[in-house]
Specification:
This protein has 331 residues and is of the alpha/beta class. The chain contains twelve helices and 14 strands. The protein has a six-stranded parallel β-sheet, sandwiched between helices. Strands 9-8-10-11-12-14 form a six-stranded mixed β-sheet, sandwiched between helices. A two-stranded antiparallel ribbon has the order 1-2. Residues 13-70 form the HTH lacI-type domain.
Length: 331
């Protein structure tokens, strides 16, 4: 544990100095200053006295010690699934800006869409007494909510919904339906159905997008068979492999379920010397310049992040879901 310049002959104050003044053991002082004093069943009065001594002696406070005095750490955490596309990068950037504008310190960690990593990240944030955890695109948001609730910490869900905490998500159904209609009208009714490619069928967002695509086909008098819905994951190589191993001719147009999957589609088109009109549920300014692009669905990150921060001001309540409209980009 590092110290600061204090009154002990010009040398830095240490936990041993504080322990001597407080009449406590060095291990107890260390537990108080690193925030684990409750687990050690140290009296709150002792913890407060140690922190007051540490401050008066010029000992450097850490975040947990500051939190003890105010019952707030002014730290807000975000659990992020990936950093590999513009959408999540934009969420992270705006999360940090919104947090700082509120006088909060933002902490972000990437959990690789791994539910065990998610819970481990939540536990680490709890150890730092964050005021709130925002679970973004979490594989198991309800497990994160239960873990945090046991420590008295609030959670909110962003991008993917949960059943046990308020959620703010994109209107995936309407965005997908509008994009699919645009694609079908581009190629004409006799050249359907589309091929849906990418994502995970177990994800709420992918399921809602598939529902939107199916309803778009129905609106044009078409049916999209199950064989044309390939939820092969988000990795680009999986999208390319799915097209390479398709048991039938690649359809006239593609509905691509992320810009990461679109990378695989672009590689497939270049490797095969073939082109297909595509629409993508996600937006990237470079991908939008591809000549095969018909339209891209841009999720409104500004509205998503602003709305989730607005929920911080609401008293804890029911686990409702707020849906934010998407933007259909055709240029």
């Amino acid at each position: 544990m590092s110290g600061s310049q204090g009154k002990f002959g010009g040398r830095r104050t240490t936990i041993y100095d504080i322990a001597q003044i407080a009449g406590a053991s060095p291990s107890a002082v260390s537990a108080i200053l690193n925030g684990s004093w409750k687990k050690r069943r140290i009296a709150e009065s002792t913890a407060k006295r140690v922190i007051e001594i540490a401050e008066s002696e010029g000992y450097a406070r850490n975040l947990q010690a500051s939190a003890l005095r105010s019952d707030r750490s002014n730290v807000i955490g975000m659990i992020m699934p990936k950093y590999d596309n513009r959408y999540f990068g934009a969420i992270a950037e705006q999360f940090e800006a919104k947090a700082r504008a509120r006088g909060l310190f933002p902490v972000i960690t990437c959990t690789e869409r791994n539910p065990e990593f998610e819970v481990a990240a939540a536990r680490e944030m709890i150890g730092y007494r964050v005021d709130c955890i925002i679970a973004t695109g979490a594989t198991d948001p309800d497990r994160i909510t239960r873990t945090a609730a046991a420590a008295g910490i609030r959670t909110l869900n962003l991008d993917l919904p949960g059943r046990e905490a308020p959620s703010v998500i994109s209107d995936n159904y309407s965005g997908a339906r509008d994009l699919a209609l645009l694609l079908l009208d581009k190629i004409g009714p006799t050249r359907g159905p589309l091929l849906f490619l990418g994502g995970r069928g177990s994800d709420h967002n992918t399921a809602e997008r598939i529902r939107g695509v199916r309803d778009a086909h129905e609106a044009r008098g078409l049916v999209i068979p199950d064989s044309h819905v390939l939820t092969c994951g988000y990795a680009s190589y999986k999208a390319q492999r799915a097209l390479d191993t398709l048991a039938f001719d690649v359809p006239a147009a593609l509905f691509v379920n992320s810009t990461i999957s679109l990378e695989g589609v672009a590689r497939w088109m270049r490797s095969k010397g073939q082109t297909r009109p595509f629409g993508c549920f996600d937006w990237d300014p470079f991908a939008a310049l591809l000549e095969e692009n018909v339209g891209m669905v841009k999720q409104d990150v500004t509205a998503l992040v602003s709305t989730i921060f607005d929920r911080l001001d609401d008293p804890p309540g029911q686990a409702d879901v707020t849906q934010i409209p998407c933007i259909l980009c055709t240029e």
